[in-house]
Every structure is written in C-alpha cells, then in structure tokens.
Amino acid sequence: MEHSQPIYRKNLSLIISFMVLITISLLIAILLAYNFTKKYVENEFAADKVEVFERTIQPYTNFFQQGIPEVSYYHGYLDSASADSYARRLIARYAFIEKVIFYDTEVSNWPISDGIKAGYFSVQPKAIYQIGPGVRKGAQVIFSSKNPNTLSLKTADEFNKMAIKLNKYVESADTTQAPSPDETFATFYGIDANKISYLNVPRKEELAMFKKLMLVKQAKSPVFEKDMFTFYLNPKRLRLVNTRPELYQQLKIVPLVFEPLSTEGEQLTTEIALPGAFSGYKLHFSSSPAFLKTEIYHRFLPIFGAILLIYAFLLLIAYLIYRNLFINQQLFKLQYDFINNLTHEFKTPLSVIKVAGNNIGSSSNLSIAERKRYATILDQEVEKLNTLMNKLLSFTQLENKSITWKAERIVLADFCSAITHAFLLDKPGFLLNIDIKGVTEIQSDPILLSSIFNNLMDNAYKYSPPDRQELAIEIKKEGAYILFLFKDKGIGMTKSDAKHIFKKFYRIENQYNQHGSVGLGLAFCKELVNFMKGDITVKSQPGKGSTFIVSIPYTH
Amino acid sequence: MIRIVKQFFFFSLFAGLFACSGGGAARQIPIEDFFKNPEKTAFKLSPDGQYIAYLQPYKNRLNIHVRKLDEQKTLRLSSGLDRNISNFYWANNEQILYLKDSDGDENRRLYAVNKDGSQTRLLIPDTKVRVRIISADALPNNEVLLALNKRDSTIFDAYRLNIVTGVLKLVAKNTGTITDWMADAKGQLRLAMSNDGVNETILYRTTEAQSFKTLFTTNFKSSVRPIGFCPEKDCLYALSNRGRDKTALVEIDCRTGKEIRVIFNTGNVDVSDAEYSTLHQKIRYATYTTWKSQRVFLDEESKRIFADLSKKLPATEIRLSSTNAEEDKWIIRTFTDKNPGAFYLYHVKTKKLSQLAVINTAIKPMELCAMKAVSYTAADGQPLQGYLTLPQGKSPKNLPLVVLPHGGPGARNTWTYNAEVQFLANRGYAVFQVNYRGSTGYGKKFWTAGFKQWGKRSQHDITDGVHWLIKQGIVDPKRVGIYGFSFGGYSALWGLCFEPNLYACGASYSGLSNLFSYLKDIPPYYKPYRLMYEEMVGNPEADADYFRQVSPIFHTENIVAPLLVAQGARDSRVNITETDQLVKQLRKRGISVTYLVKQKEGHLFRNEENRLDFYRHLEVFLAKHLQN
Hints:
The structure holds two protein chains of two kinds. By secondary structure, chain A is of the alpha+beta class.
C-alpha cells in the first residue's frame, strides 16, 4: 500500500500532462486552422477574380473570335439585307453591341468622290448603313454614293482609318501568301475605345490584284466588293457572371480611372482590366470584411468540427489508458495485500509451532498433560496450514477448470446437519438455524457444495460482532433453481463494497479481518457456483447484516 | 503456376484471334496494296505499232518507259521526281511528248524525248507560258497543235510547233472566249469551242484558210461534244443533248449547224461516249451507262473484234485503250468491280491476244467485295440509283456503314473497280454510293435538279438512302459514318452539321465548307462564268441567306460527332485559312478533330506517300468511331 501510492500518482500526472498537451494542441490547431482559412479565403478573393472575369468576358471573346471573323466568310458578298440579318443575329446574341455600322465597300481603280485613294487604288463606300436597336427592321441608309460628296468626316472616320490601313498593307504586301495572323490583326481589325472595326480579309489572289491596281496604271478595272463593319460596344451591358457569390459581394464594371471611395468602412477590393475594345474599363470586385468573415466561418466550421472530433478521440484514448492503468494498479494492490495477508496467515501458525517446539525442546521433562497440549497445538496449527494450502490449491484448480464434477444424490437435511455439526464444534456461542422448504434432495457435488457452505458460514461467523453471532440458512426451490440463503446479523457492508467482494484478493478493511483472511473465500465461492452453472449475489445493510443468495440449477 | 496460367491465357487469346479470322472475316489487305501507284499503266502503241510506251513508277513517281513490241528490254525516258507524269503522246514513230512540272510548281511544261532516251528537251522555254495540248498524237509534219497564253496570260491562242525545228506559228487567235480547239485527222484546226460562261458556241471552218464561223450557240445546260469528223464534207459526229433531255450520238451539218440525224439514243440515260476511228473516220461504237457501262456497235468490224475478245476474256469489262495508226494492233484494258485489271495487246488480223501487264498484282479479286447496284425512292418520289458494297464474310445485318458521296456534284458513280470502296469494304464496312440529284449521266433534268440544291435536295437524297438502308436492317443505325472528297467532303460536313443524329463520325477530304468562298474563286475578270455558277450554285448576294444556311462553316456549333479533315495547303478551291478556322472552332468546343495538312498538295493528293498517309489516318479514324 505504501509503495503503490507513488506509482499511482505518477500515472495520474502523466495523464494530466497528456491532457494538458492535447488541450494546448487543440487550441493551437483551432487557432492555426482559423488563420489558414482566413488567409485562404483572402487569397481566393484575390485569385478567383480571373474565373469571374473569364466568364464575364466569354461572350466578348466569342464575339471577337467567331462573330467578327464571320464577315470574312462572306467574301465581300454582303449587301444591306444580308448585312442586316448578320448584324441583327449578333445583336440578339451579344447584349453589349449597341449599334452596328455597315460600310458596303468597293475597291477599284476608278475615280471616286468619297473614300480614300492611294496611287490608282481607290476604296469607296458604296453605301453606309446603320443597324441596331432603335433602327427598325432593315438597315438605315446614312450615306449612299448615289449622292456624291455627301460623306461627312464624322461618318467616314472609322472607314477612312481602315481604308488607310488597307492601303498601307496592299502597298507593301507579299502577295504570294495570304496575310499572316499578325498582319490580319494589324490591318483588318481596328480596335478603339468601345468600338471594333473589321474589314473582311482578302484572299491571296485578291490581294495580288489590289496591288496591281494600286501600282500599275490600267484600264478601268472591275469593282471588287468588300465589307466593313464598325461595332459600337457598351461595356456596362456585359452580363456579370459572379461565379463566386460567396466571395464577391459586389461586382461592377467601372472606368479604368475609377478609385473607390469607401463610405461604409474598410472594404476588401480587387480589380482586373477588361481587354480589347473595353480596355478603358475594369471589373471591380468588393466585399465587406463582415461578408468575408461569414464565408471564413462557413469554411472554418467543418474544420473546427474535425479538430474537435480528433480531440474527443484522443480524450477517449486517454481515458482508456487511464482505466487500464487503474485496473492494473488495483490488481497490483490486491496481489500485494494478498501476499501480506498470506504471510500473516502462515506466520501465525508457524510462530505458534515455533513456540511450541521451543517449549518442548527447553523443558527437561514434560508432563503427559503438557505433551498432549503441545501435540494438540501442533496438530491444530498444522491443520490450519493445510487448510490454507488446500484452499489455495483448489482455487487454482477451479480457475484452471481442472476439477471434476461428481453429481451425487444429496439429502439436504442430512447434509446440513452434518456440515453444521462439524462447523459448530469449536464455535459454541454461534446460533445457526436451518430451514428447508419444499425440497428434500438434490443432485450435486457434495464436496463443492460443502465448500460453499463452509466459506459462507465462516464469513458469517467472522464478520459478526460477539453479541449477534447468528446465521439463518434457508433452502428453497424457485422455478428451475434451488436457492440457498445465508442470512447473518453481522457488520454488513456498503453497496460499493458489495460490488467487489466476489473479486479475487478483495478484502474489506476492518477490525474483523486483521488476521487470517486472504480475500479468496468469496471469490472461490463465486467460481464454484459459476462452475455449477449457478449464481451468487449479496444483499447487505451496513451494521445490520448481509444475506448471501446462492442459486444453482435444480436437478434430482 | 502463375507462369503457366499466363501462358495459357496468351494461348487462349491467340486461339481467339485465329478463331475470329477463321470465322469468315476477310484478310486485311495492306493500305499500300490499294493506293500505291499502278505497277504499269497507260500503254500506248507507237504509230507504226513497233514500239510500246507506258507509265511505271520510278522512285515512287510514274515515269515513261518504252520497249520494242516483241522485246522485253525496257528503257526509262523521263525522270520526274516531284509528281507523277500523267500523260504522254507518241508524236511520231521516234519521239514522245509529255508534260511535267518542276518542283511541284503546278506549271506543267512540254518536253520531247527520243524513244532511245536521247535529246530530252523543253519545247516552250518561257516559264510564264502555260501549255495546253490540242493534238499531239501521230503528228503530220512533226507539228504539234498547242494552246498557249503567250500573247495575254488570260487568253490561249492556237499555235503549231514543229518539234524538230522548234518553229512556232500562230494558227488561230482567240477572240477571248475560246476554251477549246479541235483538229481533224490531217491536223487541220477546224473547230473551236467558245464559252462566255453561260452560253457555249461552236465555231467551224472547212479549211484553215477560212475564218471560223459560228455553228450554233447553246446554253451551258445543254452540251454538244464533238467526237470527230464524218467522211463526208462538212459533217460532224457529236454527243449532244441540245433540244432533248438525254444526250444522244448525232451527226451535225456543219454548214447549217442543224442535226442531220440521231445515230443512237437510249431514252433512259445519256450516251456517255463514242469511240471514233481516226483511220476510217467513223464511229466504232457508242457507250452508255445504266448501272454499268454498256456498248452498242455501229461498225461490223468492231462488233466482230469485241465478240472475239469477250470469248477470250470472259466475265470481265473490256475497254479499248490505244491503237497504232493502222488500227490493226489494239491495246485493251480489262477490269471488274473486284479487279483493277490488266492490259493486253490484240492483233486484229491474227486474233492473237497477249497480256502486257497486270495493273496491281497485290490485289487478289477473290478477296474483294462485290459492288451491287441498288435503287430506292427519295422522299419526294424521285427514283435514285446507287451502289452498295458489303464486306466479305459478314451477314448483311447491322453492319457499320460508310456513306461515300461522289464529288462534283456534276459527276456520277458507276460500276467499276474503286480502290476506296474496296479498301473500306475490306475493313469491314458496308459502303454506300449514290447518284443524288445533280449527278450527271441521267439526263439534263436530273442534273439541273441539283442546281441551287446544295445542302438541300442533293443532300436529302443521300440522307434518304441511308434511312432506306437502315430500314432494311442492313445497317446499324448507331454506326454510320460519312466520308467524301471535295463536294463529297462538303456532304460529310453538311451531314455532321444538319443530320447530327444520323452520323457517328465524318471525314472530309478537301471538302468545301463555305459556298461564298467557292463562288469567290471565280475572279471578276471571268464575270461571265459567275453567271453560270450563280445558276448552278446560287448568287452570293441575292442568295446570301441560302448560302449561309447551307455552308457548314457558319454552323460548326451544330457538329457533335468526331471529324477528320484532310487539306492540301495549296488547295485553290478550298481555302486552308477557312479550314483552319473550322477546326479551331470545333476543337475549342471539345469536339475531336483529326486534322491532316499536306503542305505540297492541292485539292487532290497526288503523291503516293501523302495519299497513303491520308488513308492510314482514315482507317484509324473510322475504326475508332465505327467499330465496336
């Protein structure tokens, strides 16, 4: 007992330090996880704008890469009607197109009144049409070459720019091959703030003819048809696609020079410039910290839960380890006590034997009475030792299931009177009362049964104060079982003790068992009863007495 | 133990393979065997009948070889390494003329060579001049008749060139619209065909001393093709459908331009050709194509000769390929649907027949598949003819199908050996060809019924045919592919765009994708031609909506099936930038596109290695998407 306590404390401190450690880990993990989540959300806020940008700008990209070059597929064959249907198709599809100007263009070496002429090469709008919302079905003519010299510089501005580019290109073009992508972009596209002009790309053969028209004086050439369009675009009409509504509270298309002036506290913002014709604008993203915090918590919650789960798991493991340690500790204590007690048990008869031996040895002559007394003493003490050894042995046998069951016919009245008679021989003051109800004989092993009787009677005797030395044994049949009730008026025990008394080496510490108790008796009884496929229980009140009830299957 | 199990596994695997091939499916004939250059072809007798010249591959390109008729020793006369030589002429008994381009520049120039291989010479050294041959066989006075654009690069005048002295004389000036010339048996230039794009005029003169007089003018929808002059003065044999639906063989009075008589007419189909004997100045026979080519004899000698030939060469088609000047030695060619055939020499007098060469020795007719003529009715009631070739060793049920629409569209499929068809059938596909509306050979009405019907009736005829085959249970509706060249490629692209549920995949070989581009290729200088095309295809301005509606390039978003596209970078008919654009748009949408570009090729891949590479890709592509 004195040795076990420090070990016990050491375990507890280990457990406690472990608990402290994992609790600290828990706190750190929660803190780190929160910070990481926060950083992550902030990073996403900055990075995922590209996704929103790409989705928002997708229609523009389609328009630019497919819608516009489609003009070239017509190879100059568009007229007001087909250009109108082409442009209206685009307007219906792309909301950001405000209006479309179509320049039905002629290229020749003829003298012209409107348009651009370089060398002998003239580029003239045959007619200019406006197509778009607000213009009723059919293109509205804003210029026609039937009315020469009526083309205003304002109307012709885009046309002139593109025609000059075409002139420049034709002048220096390598006509053995079609225009390269670089040349195509530089010559046949005109990208300005909120508008794109496009002139259909001539084929290699056409280009060679154009070059000849420009550089060589020839008779009146045929007229080559070309198509040019100017698309007026409105970036504000781009449909904003917020693919991350949880990150971006507000999306706006604002002029490139726009700087947000916060009126509602600090705002998180990021931006990305729009391409091409929209380059004067940018996509502006903003979110309030509180808005982002919601998202952070939203994401942190499952992580938090997971950490808690891990923590709970660790706690469970800690508890299980603690419990194992505790049980081992108890076992250790019980064994220690057992050896202690066993030593006492052995020591007492041994010291008596020693004293008797000494007395016999030192006395010169012993009277017959003295010799008899010593013999009796020696015999008694050896018998005590023998009983002790037998008890230990049979218990071990029982635990190892190495005893055998020999069922015999037992007449209960005879059995009881024999066993109580022997028991009461040296206990003259003990009051023992036997009551057998409704059963006369059973089939069982008499040796095992008598062991149980002896143990329980011993206990009743041992744990009764001198003035209440009495035991009532009641035997009765109940269903398929036969019950043996041992009712004493001894010291009794608490409920918590009652739970443990059938365990090996368990002893209740009190004045009645200072000597001669090993804590094996009841455990042995329980083993025996279990062996006989029965059960043993106890009902007890401290200070009043206990009732042990043994029930074994009834056979006869 | 594991080892044993493994071996057993492999064994059973192989056993399985053999079981498959033993179970009836035909041997896979290598692609090379179908599409390699012919081993020997284009046999031609020298005018005296002593020598024989032919084309044979040299370093993978067809070149001219010559040998004495009764000797085996051959001599190679040309060494074209860039392109196959496609045609040559016996100018006289000693010299051969041929056209060859250099460095694949597509400008074929005229060469002459002696039959002993000496004195190869370039006859028109000016590199800017393009040469068209009017007549180059058996030349009187060693003078070849050529059309050259010497005076004006857009106009070809007729010249007479002495191939020995090199003296070049102008024979007739082109008034601007003459597209073709014809000489009589004595080498006198007597006919000129002029075309203003819509109307075709035939001009005639009795002698070279006179000037050309207009015989008659026809709209381009009618055609008059001169065959040769009659023995009588001022009389011409011609194939004509002027004033009738089906082309007939007629005699025309060259003084009035009127038809004297109809020599032969079928009433069902066009007369497709007539064999003219230069020696006797008469027509030996006329041919017409029902489901296969038929012949009607107009001359007793020819009838006798063909009867003898048919007896000696039973169950095969026979074509006259070339004769000597005396026309008593014939070179004939045989073929069937399963056999590319052979060349034979026939002595008319002795009736002796000897084989000269087999065109393709690698092909075993037993392994090839029969081409069966089929007919069905289009949804609007028009009867249509086509051909169905079924793979060997498979029951005609639930087969994978390759629809193979012909190009043109002014052309037709006929019953003959077709390497493409046989290749596809050998790979296990049923192959379906159809003479849709707009095809030639069935008369003027049938041909013009395809005008402005691209993407409409012409295509619907093909679709109807596929549905008809599916209904018969021959074809697995889930495994139908469409492949074609040029207009056939357009049909494939159109099919994927507008019949997306019908086709599991499509392959376009130089397929048109944009009708605007097709019309754009007619330069404004030839404005008249535009009118003809506008009538056939449509007016790009007035019919812009129709053009857009049927041009696949505007509708790539409809395409869902995998596509194979083959394109020659130098193709002047199908613009590579547009094909690039088409492929880009499809790939952007995640559609699987196999894109094959051959840098040095034009509309049709001429070089063997490019041709083989294309068919290898086609094989893999079809196998992936049509075989299970």
